[in-house]
Design brief:
InterPro entries: P-loop_NTPase (IPR027417). With about 220 residues, this protein is α+β, with helices and mostly antiparallel strands. It has 3 helices and 7 strands. The chain has a domain of about 100 residues: P-loop containing nucleotide triphosphate hydrolases (Rossmann fold), CATH 3.40.50. Helix 1 crosses helix 2 and helix 2 packs parallel to helix 3. The protein starts with 10 loop residues before the first helix and ends with a strand.
């Protein structure tokens, strides 16, 4: 191929262009390698995720299993002691969104292992007992130097039959003494139901003319 003097390409310009294209090619090649390596890492992570989830569930169950077993045992004792019925507190444990979730159930041993709703079981009495029990357990796990050993129970006996209140309060009193806790109980039940368990009893009386008054009963 023959070129005239005016159409002959500049050799220096061609070399500069070649150098630019070579640099772009090297950059593209390096970027391609980086993206491939990143993609491989993502694929490895996705392949590992199911196994990691299963391992996390196993570790969570192993770490908290013994604690939950003890919680189940203590709450079952409380339910049986107060209600005088053969019921068992059980937990279902599962990991969702990398978090351990615990669901409480009540098994009625005297009714073919029937599972009861803790919110409505025994007219709500079961919910009262579990609520107090879990609060006491949680409070007992706190660092004593950072938290006051004090708990307020506001009408936590609202769904418990009056005949069961003395048992309920006696158990709370025993646990509080064993854990070194001070507990303030607010209730609408008759005061005589608390006589054997409470150290001090105060009666709050409404008065339209002079306002509410407090009288110490015990």
């Amino acid at each position: 191929m023959l070129f005239g003097a005016e159409s002959m390409p500049d050799l220096g310009e061609a070399r500069q262009r070649l150098a630019r294209l070579s640099a772009l090619a090297e950059t593209g090649h390096a970027e391609h390698g980086r993206v491939r390596a990143e993609l491989a890492g993502v694929r490895d992570f996705l392949a590992l995720a199911p196994r990691a989830r299963d391992t996390l569930e196993e570790l969570s169950t192993a770490l908290f299993g013994q604690v939950l077993d003890e919680v189940e045992l203590n709450l079952t004792h409380a339910v049986r002691e107060i209600l005088g019925q053969d019921r068992v507190v059980a937990t279902r444990r599962e990991v969702r969104n990398n978090r351990l979730q615990i669901h409480f159930e009540i098994h009625n041993q005297g009714d073919g292992e029937r599972v009861e709703d803790i919110m409505t079981g025994q007219g709500g009495s079961v919910c009262n007992i579990l609520s107090v029990g879990l609060r006491l357990i949680a409070l007992s796990q706190l660092q004593p130097e950072a938290h006051r050993p004090f708990l307020v129970l506001d009408e936590q006996d609202c769904w418990i039959r009056p005949a069961l209140i003395p048992r309920f309060m006696q158990l709370i009193s025993e646990i509080a003494a064993r854990l070194g806790l001070q507990i303030l109980v607010i209730s609408h039940h008759p005061l005589d139901l608390f006589a054997d368990a409470a150290r001090h009893i105060f009666e709050l009386r409404p008065d339209r003319e002079h306002g509410a008054s407090i009288r110490q009963v015990k």
